[in-house]
Specification:
By secondary structure, the chain is of the alpha/beta class. Helix content is 45%, strand content 14%. The chain has one domain (4-213): Undecaprenyl pyrophosphate synthetase. The protein contains 7 helices and 5 strands, in the order ααβαβαβααββα. α3 (55-78) runs parallel beside α4. The chain is globular, with a radius of gyration of 18 Å. The chain binds 3-methylbut-3-enyl trihydrogen diphosphate and magnesium ion. 3-methylbut-3-enyl trihydrogen diphosphate (IPE) binds at residues 1-6, 19, 46, 50, 61, 172, 197. The site of 3-methylbut-3-enyl trihydrogen diphosphate has 12 residues, from α1.
Length: 225
């Protein structure tokens, strides 16, 4: 979800108002994804690197996360959306952490769609964490290094048990992965949208899905007959 700052800049507004506007896009995309029958929607909301932004911006983003968790819980539950929050959550301050726990607990069991909110997350940190978890199991004598294959490694990631993403949408026209799901994106289709996140709506989501449906996915093999 990129482009909140530029959206605000272009209007002569402070950056935090761009982030606030971005919440509407989250709502739009969650509802659009539900209507499109998408089973897993993952939003990169706050990266490990974002902790290095000015403290007032970090505070504003955490405030919005708390607000979102408290305000959307009931509606998401009603819609059958099961929310998971993935990342290094120990870095989040207690009040926000409690709000996060509330939305996770309050939506557990939803079967229409899984919504992953990636918070304090980066792909490299996730891979390192997995390496550490596996090394620990080897040290305990619970795992033989030769047993570490794709499946075992995937299980040590935050996304344990979930399919790899079919489609990655990057907003605001940037052509970068920016440390997102480095392991899981191996064969994901990329869609770069020029639209800034606060302007991104259901039509933009559907355009991305349309684009995806035209792709020929070969996973390194030859085209299917
Ligand atoms: C949102 O957009 C990303 C978040 C950290 C929430 P940005 O804040 O990166 O916006 P730009 O890139 O400055 O436009
Ligand atoms: Mg940005």
């Amino acid at each position: 979800m990129d482009g909140n700052g530029r959206w605000a800049n272009r209007r002569g507004l402070p950056r935090h108002l761009g982030h606030r506007e971005g919440i509407k896009s989250v709502r739009e995309v969650v509802e659009g994804a539900l209507d499109a029958g998408i089973q897993v929607l993952t939003l990169f909301a706050f990266s490990t690197e974002n902790w290095d932004r000015p403290p007032q911006e970090v505070t504003a983003l955490m405030g919005l996360l708390k607000l979102y968790a408290l305000k959307e819980r009931i509606e998401l539950r009603r819609q059958g959306v099961e929310v998971h929050v993935l990342g290094d959550l120990d870095r989040i301050e207690p009040a926000t952490r409690r709000a996060v726990d509330t939305i996770v607990d309050g939506t557990r069991g939803g079967t229409a769609m899984r919504l992953n909110l990636m918070i304090s997350y980066s792909g490299r940190a996730e891979v390192l964490r997995a390496a550490r978890l596996l090394a620990e199991r080897v040290r305990e004598g619970d795992l033989d290094p030769d047993e570490i294959d794709d499946a075992v490694f995937s299980e040590a990631l935050f996304t344990d048990g979930q399919p790899d993403p079919d489609l990655l949408i990057r907003t605001s026209g940037e052509h970068r992965i920016s440390n997102f799901m480095l392991w899981q994106l191996a064969y994901t289709e990329l869609h770069i949208s020029p639209v800034l996140w606060p302007d991104f709506d259901r039509e933009d989501l559907f355009a991305a899905v349309d684009d995806y449906q035209k792709r020929d996915r070969r996973f390194g093999r030859v085209p299917s007959a």
